[in-house]
Automatic annotation (TrEMBL):
Residues 1-157 form the Glycosyltransferase 2-like domain. InterPro entries: Glyco_trans_2-like, Nucleotide-diphossugar_trans. One of its GO terms (molecular function) is hexosyltransferase activity. Pfam families: Glycos_transf_2 (PF00535). This is Glycosyltransferase 2-like domain-containing protein. It comes from the Bacteria.
Length: 261
């Protein structure tokens, strides 16, 4: 759990982890030089429960570098992120670990949209994960809270890139290029929306799609990409058609709104 000025939410986040049906875990909280009572609240839990461990950065590292910092302290087989403003449901850890243990070859797992053709969990090869990502599942658009990652796999691919806003998407592409993936049921945690999040910022609204496309191009051009040339061209063509359709729909909406004024 990484934290920065989250005194308003971190207590609920910690409580949700401690309420987990799976009891064998370590809760690593890395504070990124908060100026509020975040550390004070976290320390109150560390005093009561030895599974809670607090680390404080001397200088602010930023979102993804701090996630890497947190991972460097982990001693367990798996890394599971929960943001300090989110809430984990009691069965979350137990379900994720069970799914990963069922498929030892997998390097990571992600919550996914429901698959009408088969029950979860489902094992995906690197190629299958890439194909499903572009055929409606959007695996690589998941937030860190949707994931569980083998510590060994995380370290081998180098963790988060550190790129602003898009570091999680980049990591899923990279992990899936190197390891099979497990997809499991959605809604294992609750992701809170509030004004203090970068995802709600003007920067995110303006830059996210461009950054997302940049990451996709990066891995499409990578020689280790599990897709063949035809598949890559087909996906790029499909994305272009979707963008044109979205642009048309948005334009029509603007015209309709202007006509109503």
């Amino acid at each position: 759990m990484t934290a920065y000025n989250r005194e308003k939410y971190i207590e609920e986040a910690i409580e949700s982890v401690l309420a987990s049906t799976l009891k064998d875990f370590e809760l690593i909280i890395v504070d990124d030089s908060s100026a509020d009572k975040t550390v004070e609240i976290a320390n109150s839990y560390a005093k009561k429960d030895k599974r809670v461990k607090i680390f404080i950065n001397e200088h602010n590292l930023g979102d993804y570098p701090n996630r890497n910092k947190a991972a460097s302290y982990a001693q367990s087989k798996y890394i599971k992120y929960l943001d300090s403003d989110d809430i984990m449901y009691p069965h979350c850890l137990e379900v994720m670990v069970h799914c990963m243990e069922k498929f030892p070859a997998a390097g990571f797992g992600l919550s996914a949209k429901t698959d009408p053709s088969k029950p979860y969990p489902v094992f995906l090869t690197s190629r299958e994960a890439y194909i499903e990502n572009f055929y409606g599942y959007g695996h690589f658009d998941r937030a860190p809270g949707s994931s569980i990652i083998k510590k060994e796999a995380f370290d081998k691919v180098g963790g988060f890139s550190g790129e602003r806003m898009i570091g999680d998407t980049d990591l899923w592409y990279r992990l899936a290029m190197n390891y099979p993936m497990v997809k499991f049921v959605p809604d294992l945690y609750w992701s809170r929306l509030h004004e203090g999040q970068e995802s709600q910022s003007s920067y995110a609204q303006q830059q996210y799609e461009q950054l997302r496309k940049m990451v996709m191009d990066r891995y499409f051009k990578n020689p280790a990409c599990p897709l063949n040339d035809k598949e890559r061209k087909d996906f790029l063509a499909g994305i272009s058609r979707k963008k044109r359709r979205t642009f048309f729909i948005n334009t029509v909406k603007k015209v309709l709104r202007s006509n109503n004024h």
